Amino acid sequence: MRKNSLILAAALFAALSACSETPAPKSAEKKEPEKVEPVTGQTALYRMYQSARTWAPDAEVLTCTNMHITDAPDGPRESGAMPAWQAVFTSASRSESRTYNYSVLEASGNLHKGAFAGGTESWRQHGFTSPFLIAAVKVDTDAAYKTALEKAADYDKKHPGLPITYVLEKTEKHPDPAWRVVWGENVQTSGLSILVDASTGAYLETVH
């Protein structure tokens, strides 16, 4: 009888010891870094336009440009793709304009992944640029860059590594909106820009 009691006590002690053991921590799973794929100007513009239509059904494009950000690199030059874009849309019925951003990732400078609306401002038709229907943008930035490079090949070789900036707008000088392909971070500091018709893809002019 005593022998049986000792066996039962030993079994009970072993069970309690097993329950009190701290389970081994699970090995931390390695999280793959988020894959960031820059997008072309036309792609970003259409995604921002979808949001702008909920603000104003008569929304038209005033400008669109890419943003150079430190959180993600620009895409290959020939791709015409960038990680972040900004567009301004106008509404004649509201007499307002509204800025939208599109980013492929959460980034500094209050950039959110996807299309994000900014504030509105009063607006009326004036100045050198005018709004236009998004349907007029039939040529994407990759094609615009290819056309521009044909005219800027010598400059490109003499200034390797310059970032490329795209500015979409419609001016009084040309009947269609144009992609301005800028060698540099902005128009003000650039030594060369090539204008490409955003509707036909034709070369328009060189601006030094």
Explain the overall architecture.
The chain is of the alpha+beta class and 208 residues long. It has helices spanning 2-20, 41-55, 141-158; strands at 39-40, 60-67, 81-82, 84-91, 96-103, 114-122, 164-169, 178-183, 193-197, 203-207. The strands form two sheets. An eight-stranded antiparallel sheet has the order 6-5-4-2-7-8-9-10. It has a two-stranded antiparallel ribbon with strand order 1-3. The protein is globular and about 45 Å long.
Summary keywords:
disordered N terminus; alpha+beta; eight-stranded antiparallel β-sheet; 3 helices; 208 residues; two-stranded antiparallel ribbon; globular; 25% helix
**Radius of gyration, taken over Cα atoms and rounded to an integer in Å:** 28 Å
Task: Please estimate the helix content.
Answer: 25-40%
Count of structural domains: 1
Question: Helix-strand pattern, N to C?
Answer: HEHEEEEEHEEEE
**Percent of residues in beta strands:** 25-35%
User: How many alpha or pi helices?
Assistant: 3
- Mean pLDDT equals 88
Distance between the termini: 105 Å
Structural class: alpha+beta
Segments where pLDDT lies below 50 for 5+ residues? Answer: 1-20
Q: Estimate the global geometry from the Cα principal axes.
A: globular
How many β-strands, per DSSP? 10
Strands ordered across the widest β-sheet = 6-5-4-2-7-8-9-10
Major sheet attributes: 8 strands, antiparallel
